[in-house]
Amino acid sequence: MAFRATSLLKAAASLGSRRSFKPVPIPKISLNKNATSKTMASATTATRQSPLDVQLTFLGTASAQPSSTRNHSSLALRLGSDVWLFDCGEGTQSRLQQSIVKMGRIEKIFITHTHGDHVFGLLPLLASILNGAGGAADGEDEPRAHIDVSNPVIEIYGPLGTRAYIRTGLKYTHTFFSTPYVVHELRLPWDPKHGDHTPLPCHSAESPNGRNIFQVDGVWENIFEDNVISVSAAPILHSVPCVGYVVNEAPIPGKIDPKKYIPELKRTNTHISAMSRLQKGESVELSDGTVLHGPPRRRGRKLVILGDTHNPAAIEPLALDADLLIHEATNAHLPNIDPGTKDDETYRSVEERTRSRGHSTPQMAGAFARRIRAKQLILNHFSARYPGNDDVDPMAKIYMDAIAGLAAREYGKEVICARDLMNVTIGVPES
Ligand SMILES: [Zn+2]
Ligand SMILES: [Zn+2]
User: In this entry, which stretches build a coiled coil (predicted)?
Assistant: First the structure.
């Protein structure tokens, strides 16, 4: 199935925060561009229309330390009008306000791991979305201490500790919400089978129906699934338990040519509503026995969003032939560009140090993208040494072009380095 990369992925080069918030399509991507794993669908899930508009907004692309040009990790995936967040580092809320993403449309938050640079922004964001605010220390006479939690507005997924982190943070900041949330944890084989990893009881806004989801054959398949989108996950190696997510779209209705069908419907006095069945790829039998077949469905899109990692091999079977891979590239060896490079430093020594901290170099990201036959690769989670204003600062552009080039040499294709507030549209496959 042939894919035209240029039409599949249109990246916006605009930094956005200080100028235009509109996604700016780049016609051609260029290096020089500026329970068990079975699902229970959420009560908040509406039926989605296919094909979806699928867009990503990078809200934070820094690693351990944010800088003036890069925020801590967060990524917004827009599916039609709904928004899913992947990680929620410090300052995510403020980046959301600068972006084209509507905070009130967030319905799910996927946490890759509980390092602070990926979760420190979660509690304030929840407080905003769920109408939260401080209450009295004992909570007596607090009407929000007695809300109906049967239909959570926000679903959060993350590894063991996600639930305890949220619950503890809310408890000791005396925070109450007027709308409920639920936390599902992706548990590793050695994690406890039961319990919440904290002696604290559920927060007053927390649904007690959060699932503990266990692996089957080393992965968490279909942790969420609705009529159009499903999400699977797998553990990826980092210095703490970490999860990579795979978002799969169900097959997309094929392009329908009305000229092919309408004369037949008219000829046999068939109601025009038959067109909607044909559009879904179904067959329709006409009054004279003729059978019309709708166009075959096209395959849906696959997005792979990794957290911090020095080895994501366990997600490979789920990630094969991804339309887009988001992979970290925390450190790079840039001897002729970075004046901070030590004389005795080599690529090998940089890779060794990077791996020992649970991270990747651009070359490692490029090699993984090639291995899974990803159609596009975007790098994120950069060291504070690598500036995020490469659209306006020529020196920053030299750094980021060099990093993209290192990954591209391993990958064999062009690579994009994400910057904060970059918008990316993932188009519908042509076949
Ligand atoms: Zn990190
Ligand atoms: Zn980390």
Answer: none
